[in-house]
Amino acid sequence: MITSILSRLTKVVTRSNDRWMACCPAHDDSSPSLSVTQSSDGKILLHCFAGCSIEEITGALGLSLNKLFPDNGFTHRDYRHQLKQSQYKEILSNEQLIVALAEAEIKRNHRLNSENVARHLLALSRIKKLEVLIYV
Ligand SMILES: [Zn+2]
């Protein structure tokens, strides 16, 4: 996924194995102000130093937030105690991050596209189920 994101950006500069700078696609950017970071668990973090929101950046790239957070194959079966508590916690924090991003967009009066609305709702329902598993 990271190569597919980088291929859509211009003036990509490699900073390290998992960090790049590129021109932000969401504003008129002549010198790279978009930071792209891949975390060890595969999440892709985008940050525009000029202040574009994640929704604006992914929108300009033609991506949904979903693409930044690999679906960890979490299915209904996994809600039974098949995973370690630490795995549930990791999935929970991933889902909470999606909710936080979505809510930050809503607070800024940005409308989420339908794919992101659906992902937001999925995250909320997963959190509800996960919290039961983790805190009982
Ligand atoms: Zn920007």
Binned, the helix content reads 40-55%
State the end-to-end distance. 36 Å
User: SSE string, helix = H, strand = E?
Assistant: HEEEEHHHH
Q: What's the pLDDT, averaged over the residues? A: 83
Per DSSP E runs of 2 or more residues, the count of β-strands stands at: 4
Number of helices: 5
Q: What percentage of the residues does DSSP assign to strands (E)? A: 5-15%
List keywords for this structure.
single chain, 136 residues, alpha+beta, four-stranded antiparallel beta sheet, 46% helix, binds zinc ion
Task: Put the structure in a nutshell.
By secondary structure, the protein is an alpha+beta fold. It has helices at residues 2-7, 54-61, 65-68, 85-107, 114-135, and strands at residues 13-16, 19-22, 34-38, 44-48. It is 46% helix and 13% strand.
Task: Tell me what the structure shows.
The protein has 136 residues and is α+β, with helices and mostly antiparallel strands. It has two domains: 1-63, no CATH class; 71-136. It is 46% helix and 13% strand. The chain has five helices and four strands. It has helices at 2-7, 54-61, 65-68, 85-107, 114-135; strands at 13-16, 19-22, 34-38, 44-48. It has a four-stranded antiparallel beta sheet, with no helix packed on it. Helix 4 (85-107) packs antiparallel against helix 5. The radius of gyration is 16 Å and the shape is globular. Zinc ion is lined by residues 24, 26-27, 29, 48, 50, 52. Zinc ion binds at residues 24, 26-27, 29, 48, 50, 52.
